[in-house]
Amino acid sequence: MMLTSVINVPSKKRLFLFVLTGIAFSVLFSIFPIMPNFTLMIICLFFAGVFNSVINTFAQSIMQLTVPQDMRGKVFALMGMLIQGLTPVGMAIGGVLAEVIEIKVIISISFILTAIMIIPFAFSNSFAQFINSDIENDDELEIAS
């Protein structure tokens, strides 16, 4: 995470970085349960964690820069509430599924679905404009509808 704070990603490469790291962490997390030995699992999880921290830091930075200062507390509180509120729901669903499906399969399918959900961002013009905008130099961010 410290590395992401010192590297300046050019605005035209942000969408590519977002999609690449999102898919990379999802794929690595989805294949780690089927790795044949513990060492490969650890290596896979290490790189998945690196990519996950890059995408999380990147997403948080974009949110901080694009949300108006007077709304940041409300927006981040809502995001935190949704994430923390949905965690027990996900755990309950995962627990029920684990009774009938092997846990390795659940983990792999969950992260494959995550990768699939990230792919449409690569083709969204409004998201590309949003994430590639040079926010520090723009007076106001304009997003196409």
What topology does this entry show?
Blueprint: H1 2-6, H2 14-31, H3 38-66, H4 72-98, H5 103-118, H6 125-132
Helix pairs in contact: 2-3, 2-5
Note poorly predicted spans.
138-145
SS class: mainly alpha
Which outline best applies?
A: globular
Q: Number of DSSP strands?
A: 0
Mean of all residue-level pLDDT scores: 85
| Biggest sheet statistics | none
Helix amount, in percent? over 70%
Task: Give the SSE order as H and E letters.
Answer: HHHHHH
Oligomer: single chain
Work out the helix count.
6
The percent range for strand residues is: under 5%
Gap between N and C termini, in Å? Answer: 32 Å
Give the C-alpha Rg: 17 Å
Describe the structure in your own words.
The protein has 145 residues and is mostly helical. It has a domain at 2-69 and 104-131. 71% of the residues lie in helices and 0% in strands. It is built from 6 helices and no strands. The longest helix has 29 residues, at 38-66. The two termini are 32 Å apart. The model is unreliable at 138-145 (pLDDT under 50).
Q: What can be said about this structure in brief?
A:
The chain is mostly helical and 145 residues long.
